[in-house]
Amino acid sequence: MGLFKSLRGKIEVGTDNQGQGQEREEYSVYSSPSGPPPSHRNRNRGAENKDRDDDFTPPTGPPPSYRGQGQVHNNDAEEYVPPTGPPPSHSRRAEDQFVPPSGPPPSHNRRTDDDFLPPPGPPPASGSSNANPPPYHDWTVIPDTALLPPPPPLPQDYSPTNNATYDSAARAHEWCARNPVYTPSNPSHELQVLVNAGHITLEAPPGPLKRHVSTFRRTSPTTWRVGTQKNQQDAIILSSVPLYFACADSPLVTGRSKTTYFQIHIHRIQNANSGIAIGYAARPYPPWRLPGWHRASLGVHGDDGRRFVNDPWGGRDFVAAFRGNETIGIGMEFKAQEVAGRRVKTRVFVTRDGRADDRWGWEIDEERDERDEGVDGLMGEGDLYAAIGVFGEVEFEVTFGDSVR
């Protein structure tokens, strides 16, 4: 690029014979390598040089067009000679930049070492009486639960067989609110003797509920015969006197346990829409409701075999349904217990045809559902009467007395 700049500049200079000068310039550039480059010629072309050969004597060294090729001019050589030492990427400055500092890396500095150094002395367990770690619990070993009592069955919302209406239950709750439970009575000695001997009187359902009671009579001092028709609605039959007197029978009063018991012998249950319930209840009790559905009452219902304790819902699974020609007994055991002060512990048990089974019993104060109405009146603090519920067409015999079981 520098070469053509020099050529144009030369043509623009005024001379006596421009054509001749141009020819010479072209010759000097393209034909005679011995002549000086145009940029080195004398700018006064009108005068003759003393020696024309001197004008065409090339200067020492290579021509400008060969600078940087082959042999290098001294200035260019100095310009392109690499500096001594390693290239910039390996200069001392770069080496200094990446040389790690003396001593341990930052993560192992003295301050960090101090933080993680163990405390002086032996480990805590060394030399002590508890040198071994405590034993761990082997969760792979499944404990034997055969000796543990079974968990209580879950409460149910309704019976799979027969259910009363919501209206009936609502009226009964209102009735109980208006008629609180009687306070415990203090029986005479004579009355206690008669009760213990089984000389108990039954009371038939009142008013319209008695309309479909076909049989209701005493067959012996300790036995009653009862029969109902198919249109019999829910009704309860109660004993006239308590089988358990809180003031006279409580273990907290007598210092000894008390057991009360009675049984029924079923002659006939007509169909699936008929049934018998057996249990205990405090007075007064809504006469159109079965035992176990309301406060201070419990019952085992023969149509579904479930047990009820102050439970107006569906009860809990318990035993097989009652059958015709079968004897069902129910008892309550009251015992004193020293737990957070003296109190009475109550257990209910059932017999079938004279046979007892641990599975046919439960603790009254077992785990309860939050919707249940508690166990008030059943823990030995109130009088309890024999209670028999009926509906539909049934026939049975009731027997009282300590001798039955």
UniProtKB/TrEMBL annotation:
It comes from Cladophialophora yegresii CBS 114405. The keyword rRNA-binding does not apply. Residues 45-55 have a biased composition (Basic and acidic residues). One of its GO terms (cellular component) is membrane. CDD domains: SPRY_SSH4_like (cd12910). Keywords: Membrane, Transmembrane, Transmembrane helix. Residues 1-164 are annotated as: Disordered. It is found in: Membrane. This is SPRY domain-containing protein. InterPro entries: B30.2/SPRY_sf (IPR043136), SPRY_Ssh4-like (IPR035780). The lineage of its organism: Eukaryota, Fungi, Dikarya, Ascomycota, Pezizomycotina.
